[in-house]
Batch of 4 targets.
Target 1
Amino acid sequence: MLFSPYITKPDSVSKIMLQVLFALIPGIAIYVWFYGPAILVSLLLASLTALSTEALMLKLRERPIAPFLKDNSALLTAWLLALSIPPLAPWWLIVVGTMFAIAIAKHLYGGLGSNPFNPAMIGYAVLIISFPSQMTHWLAPGGLGSAGLDFQSQLNYIFRGALPDGLTLDGVTMATPLDTLKTQLHMNGQMKSILEMPIYGRLAGVGSEWVSLGFLLGGIYLYARRIIGWHIPAIFLITLFAISGVFHLMDPARYAGPLFQWFSGASMLGAFFILTDPITSPTTPKGRMIFAFGAAILTFLIRVYGGFPDGVAFATLLMNICVPLIDAWTQPAVFGRKDER
């Protein structure tokens, strides 16, 4: 029989990271179902690159290699980056983005625990700015493209840039639901008619809405296991719902509804897996709420008015800049001392 107080040993970094990786599996499985196994190749390439780069940087910094490789933080960065870029991305694009994320965004600042920016989102930002064309070739979900690719054809394109005879890249890829929406609105399309296009389903894009549901399921698992708190996911999603709802009510012909914003792009991935990074997010509950609120506002503004179809990555990085200030202003006063702020 146990008596209070119940003191438990805190989970190790490797165990926490492993559970986060496990929580990504439902979304990845749905991804494979709708888009084919190309994403698994991206995940494998990113993982191998991340581990190799991590080992190289640790050696150059004269740090022990095995303990840091086993903490699974490099793998998590690799997976989040791979899930943020098109699954048909050429192999070199994945390698470049992952190497930059690990070597520059992580180790240049001192390694795990010292990096001010989310490494995966830094890698994504570098790729979309440097190689915008390659970052827009998203696979069409099954049944929507003019042609499909089997696994061997996907491998041939990833490693050789070759498609089967008679097929063009436009025939097997398409713009994302967010990008399509933005393009159609710029062409003076009306929201109701746009959302009747075959690319859209009940909540958002066909296929992508189910992937988002998979990440939502994984996020609930992380919360149930107390790997993450409620502050960032709840405030981010509530704020995104509220601001998109207000704009939708004011002009439903020009602004998509809240559920569309929730289940499009990287909203769920960002809410539960990216913004909740304990290294690059605030340390206080109040700070996390401010952080999530700002990220949601920026995500919506970038999606609606910015030059990129999705805004989660850049919203995360912009709010990462604010974390020291948020922490400074939300730290509770030291007991016995007057708070002079």
Note: The CA atoms of residues 118 and 277 lie 7 Å apart.
Target 2
Amino acid sequence: MRDWIVDTNPDSWISMAVLSDGSYGIEEGLIYSYPVRVVEGEATIVRGLDISEFSIEKMKETEAELKEERDAVKYLLEGEGKFFN
């Protein structure tokens, strides 16, 4: 919350869940935790970081889990679930 209000330091970044734009190979449109810099309250994904093979593997596992969770509740968001009848 602090960084949204006073911005991140120009030479650092924080992790924040934001809408994916496809960076680092994560599906576009998925809410995913990225390294971001905040300037005037706007979070921008930090690109070009060196990511180890181990970390890439873990990122893809997390992406798969998030997609499974999204798909498991998709019917609720589309108005077809019992909560919307």
Note: The first helix runs from residue 2 to 6.
Target 3
Amino acid sequence: MKIQNFSDLHFDVLPIRKFAVVEGIDAVIVAGDTCEGLSNRLR
């Protein structure tokens, strides 16, 4: 199983950094420090 990890994304700070899931990844872990009000950012 291939896993890709993201952390410290800080979607609430401009400019928003781009990120991509690498081809062939089976699971993605988003670990902490994403933003305030994460549910609003993932719509």
Note: Helices lie at 38-41.
Target 4
Amino acid sequence: MAIDRYESTIETDFQKKLDYGGYLRLDEILNSQHPLSNPAHHDEMLFIIQHQTSELWMKLAVHELTAAVEHVKQDRLSPCFKILARVKQIQRMLFEQWAVLETLTPSEYAQFRGVFGQASGLQSFQNRMIEFLFGNKDPRMLAVFQHNAPVFEELQRLANTPSLYDEFLRHLARRGYEVPAERIERDWSEPYEAHPGVIAVFQRIYNHPEEYWDAYEMAEKLVDVEQQFALWRFRHVKTVERIIGFKMGSGGTSGVNFLRKGLEIRLFPELWDVRTEIGQ
């Protein structure tokens, strides 16, 4: 049986009005896929769209994490709970996207891999922004962005300012928690290193969540996003191994072996270490 869904109130005259495509600038977005293979390989479109959509999700993640940092700097933890819950879902979308790319077989990818030369996800400045906002700092990774002055300058700024975790520890110090001084004033361009004094702070919070609820909730939200980040990294490794095996990465890395090192990174180490101490 046919269902008539037409309603007389549906707007149809957009000669002088903003429509859906105009608001979203779909003319620009949908015309931004330009395969380089000649003749065009069918699967190159998948490869391009996979990475373009990832960058759109990363743009939102940067937007959200930047807002979270500002809230923490102003001692407002509550808005961060919603923000980090959203970031976790963005990360979930990025994780699930690998499933689409996994439909690309090694034989298919080999037919067009060479067309983009040394272009590589390693050069994703938004991914680097996310890493820096989370605190995974390594100034040496900035070298690949030297050709793009605005991006290079913004990454330098992020590399030399406190991460979200740094700001959380500074917030806790302002509230009277005994955060070690060397963790709230340091060289922000250096990667964060765990400190037993910070574990003690989180042990106090986790042993009495009802007393320190906002700090406890913030800590758990950070664990959420780090766990999701680790899952994304793992699936990235397995997807790359599945498609190119142990070939060199297009950007000059060792490929899978390089990506595997990322699995060992801990963004908020004391939030994991404290689990051994809770209840003691």
Note: Residues 223 and 272 are 8 Å apart (CA to CA).
